[in-house]
Amino acid sequence: MEMEMEKWALLQLMYKIINPDISNYVKYGVKVAEIENIVKNVYNKFICNYQDAIEIFKTLTKSNVEEEKFAAFFFLNRFKKKFNEGTIDLFREEYAKHCHTWSHCDSTCVRVI
């Protein structure tokens, strides 16, 4: 019985680490590679500058759909050569307060570094 309780506690902890604590958060299960492909196609189809990318990032990162959050970062990352100290502030001010899952935080932080 005690072992069952320990397993249950561990499962609850794992769930809390992996899943957000907001009730209306959605994950559709779209693979990261597919999101990157969609972002690449949008980037190639439309003419956007770095400021446009920042606005798109701000809008999508506020979404409660995980795939849209990934798309926000992937789109902004297409302008990586334009990153500066202001970009770090952008991540701190916009991204950090809207990063709700381990997978999203871990995946995007690796790309910034």
From TrEMBL:
<dbReference type="InterPro" id="IPR014825">
    <property type="entry name" value="DNA_alkylation"/>
</dbReference>
<protein>
    <submittedName>
        <fullName>Uncharacterized protein</fullName>
    </submittedName>
</protein>
<dbReference type="Pfam" id="PF08713">
    <property type="entry name" value="DNA_alkylation"/>
</dbReference>
<dbReference type="InterPro" id="IPR016024">
    <property type="entry name" value="ARM-type_fold"/>
</dbReference>
